[in-house]
Write a structure and sequence with these properties.
Rossmann fold, 3 domains, six-stranded mixed beta sheet, globular
Length: 518
């Protein structure tokens, strides 16, 4: 294999932030090189320099031995560099087919694009990479996983020499992720150099040949993956040993806070759930199971078609998020950028927005001093970096954006917090911070409804797990009955269903036999 990309002493600064400092990075053709680090470590900045989005303040870049300097992102694409960014970049009013070729088509001499030919190319590519997309459908109607697959296929259609993937599996199901890994190995064998960014460190050991760890904008280690242990990478990322990835707590479960009876909404049918004080209730399921529909119904985003919701014994009439918030229910949405924050505004504004009663004077004006004080306390309590209330949320790392979303709701003194994929695309250190917050919230007698695609995360953090499949509850696991096999089987296999919480009568081996996973 030969060197395809070399970066020497790359530095980049933004106002108040040294994003990269003398970073070296080398990519071999036919290799998968993992780039890891906490949110804010500089990974995305380095990727944007490679892909022509940013220009480095200093340092040199060599592509196939030739020194280069990209004028813009199109220049990088022309040089054979394709990037799938962490942010879901689609044009909602265009069709999937139009999105696939938005920056990758040539206009013939007639002046008309031959869409029939492009559709044929797209269909052949989908068959080659085992990706299925509705080409005629508007992109706005795609789910988050489908939008991610669209971006991946768009990058592959450019037949790149270098493929950069930033958190590619963050919105994918297990099967979709496995298929992606198969395709990446196939591309690697064709000589394509792949830069792979992921906070799921297990993926690094499955896929990568080499790994580079960044911390605070500096290169900490670069080595072959086979020479390292998971603990080596974690220590390099956070600068210390992580004593407990999942912090422990003594659960003190009280009386019922939320009860849902005979709830139907969208895909959900006749759902009965109870959540108790001091409890972390996990909701498991795969794409299309109804997890997010449940969250949005409880928060008043999706209309309740049938059933009743009770909080502390009082029947609620939730018709909007305002009703839910006033009742004491808050929601951390799955898509923090589109639904959790106003990215163009700063940290102070986003924290203040749902808490105007705390900052409003009796004359209806914002008390700027109080607003600033509240924002500074939230920044300190959650460790938001950089620690500036006026810093625009658009430029925060994913982890710090999520901390901002969390911090704004802690001021409400809510009884229940619904967390939908709160650690998706988040580094190991920030995940640990979120877990500690969850434990502290529950220890105050509050209740958490915790939705996650990471079943290990649910098993380690929850007191109970309810499994949804196609809009119905197919099983409920108590803590003593937790196992990965049970959660996987209940989530994915049609003939595995354990109603009425009788799961303890069935062992993991029988689950695997019935699920044909043994």
């Amino acid at each position: 294999m030969s060197e395809i990309l070399r970066m020497q002493k790359i530095s980049k600064s933004f106002p108040g932030v040294q994003a990269l400092k003398n970073v070296n990075f080398t990519l071999e053709s036919g290799h998968i090189h993992a780039l890891v680090g906490e949110n804010g470590a500089g990974k995305s900045t380095l990727v944007k320099i490679i892909s022509g989005v940013y220009e480095a303040d200093s340092g040199d870049i060599f592509l196939e031995g030739k020194k280069i300097k990209f004028k813009d992102a199109n220049d990088a694409v022309s040089a054979g560099i394709s990037t799938v960014h962490q942010d879901l970049i689609v044009f909602p009013d265009l069709s999937v087919l139009e999105n696939l070729f938005i920056d990758n088509y040539s206009v013939p001499s007639t002046g008309f694009i031959k869409w029939k030919n492009l559709k044929k190319i797209a269909v052949e590519a989908m068959e080659e990479f085992s990706i299925s997309l509705p080409l005629e459908q508007e992109a706005r109607n795609l789910s988050a996983p489908m939008r991610k697959l669209l971006q991946i296929l768009r990058a592959l259609l450019k037949k790149p020499k270098i493929l950069i993937l930033d958190e590619p599996t963050a919105a994918l199901t297990m099967d979709e992720a496995k298929m992606l890994f198969t395709n990446l190995r196939r591309l690697k064998n064709k000589g394509i150099g792949i830069i792979y960014i992921s906070h799921l460190l297990e993926e690094i050991f499955q896929l990568a040949d080499e790994v580079t760890v960044l911390r605070n904008g500096e290169e900490i280690i670069t080595d072959e993956v086979s020479n390292l242990k998971l603990s080596d990478i974690v220590k390099a990322m956070i600068g210390r040993e992580l004593q407990s990835y999942y912090p422990r707590r003594k659960s003190k479960i009280g009386q019922t806070v939320v009860s849902v009876t005979n709830l139907s909404s969208g895909i959900l049918k006749n759902i009965d759930i109870e959540v108790k004080k001091g409890e972390i209730l996990g909701i498991a399921g795969i794409l299309g199971s109804g997890r997010t529909t449940l969250a949005k119904t409880l928060f008043g985003i999706t209309p309740l078609q049938k059933g009743e919701i009770f909080l502390n014994g009082n029947r609620l009439n939730i018709k909007s998020p305002v009703d839910a918030i006033n009742a004491g229910i808050v929601y951390i949405p799955e898509d923090r950028q589109r639904q959790g924050l106003i990215l163009q505004e700063n940290v102070r504004f986003n924290i203040s927005l749902p808490n105007l009663k705390l900052t409003m004077t009796k004359h209806g004006f914002i008390d700027k001093i109080k607003e600033e004080s509240i924002a500074e306390k939230a920044i300190h309590d959650f460790g938001i970096e950089p620690p500036f209330p006026d810093f625009q949320c658009l430029h925060l790392s994913g982890g710090n954006q999520q901390k901002t979303v969390l911090s704004k709701w802690t001021l409400r003194n809510a009884d229940v917090i619904i967390m939908d994929e709160p650690t998706q695309g988040i580094d190991v250190g920030t995940k640990n911070h979120i877990y500690i917050f969850m434990n502290e919230f529950a220890s105050r007698g509050k209740a958490i409804i915790f939705i996650s695609s990471d079943f290990n995360e649910l098993i380690n953090m929850c007191d109970r797990i309810i499994v949804l499949r196609k809009g119905v509850i197919v099983g409920e696991l108590s803590k003593t009955d937790f196992s990965l096999e049970k959660v996987v089987a209940l989530s994915t296999i049609e003939d595995v269903r354990v109603p009425n919480n009788k799961v303890s009568n069935i062992g993991s081996r029988e689950y695997l036999e019935r699920a044909k996973l043994k």
